[in-house]
Design brief:
The chain is an alpha/beta fold. The protein contains five helices and six strands. Helix 3 links the parallel strand 3 and strand 4. Helix 2 packs across helix 3. It is globular, with a radius of gyration of 14 Å.
Length: 176
């Protein structure tokens, strides 16, 4: 049985977000809590991921990242090089885009090294925080399978992705 860990992005995932829906309505989904959600520090965030995951069998771990959480997972993978079952990387924010002006520390340069476990990137054709071209670039560099789900905004609560049953299709692909 897999252990699912939610890795939210900047600001955490609010009550109308698909990560919160998974955590509240489905067994086995645990949010990795961070101390500072509004001005994240990369080193602190990836240390918290590693500390949380160290208590579990790596072969049974699946991470589900959203937005800045995707970059956090990529940084964690590069630093710790742990082999886990896989990661679902949803709506990875492009920290190098001019629109991304949120405070953060240590996330530069954007991680583009191959990730050495199975990954799936889910992107939207009209995400304001990452262009389809950049999502494709990230997926290619990470060695991820890419799924463009069409116009779906930032794939969060604001874009109508509270309950998001389609995520189970992607999770199932990671389980194989």
């Amino acid at each position: 049985m897999s252990n699912y860990f939610l890795v939210p992005g900047l600001g955490n995932s609010g009550p109308a977000h698909w990560q919160t829906w998974l955590e509240k309505d489905h067994k086995g989904f645990t949010r990795i809590q961070q101390k500072e959600w509004e001005a994240p520090d990369c080193a602190t965030w990836i240390e918290q991921i590693d500390k949380t995951l160290s208590q579990h069998d790596p072969a049974e771990i699946i991470l589900l990242g959203h937005s800045l959480g995707c970059a956090t997972i990529a940084h964690w993978a590069a630093r710790y090089r742990r082999k886990i079952k896989g990661a679902l990387l949803v709506a990875p924010s492009d920290l190098e885009a001019p629109v991304y002006t949120f405070p953060n520390t240590g996330f530069d340069p954007f991680p583009i090294a191959p990730i050495h476990f199975k990954t799936i990137v889910v992107a939207s054709s009209d995400d304001p925080w990452v262009s389809p071209e950049r999502a494709k670039y990230f997926a290619k560099n990470w060695g991820s399978e890419l799924f463009d789900i069409g116009p779906a905004g930032h794939i969060n609560g604001d874009s109508g992705h509270g309950p998001w049953p389609q995520c189970f299709e992607f999770i199932k692909k990671l389980e194989l």
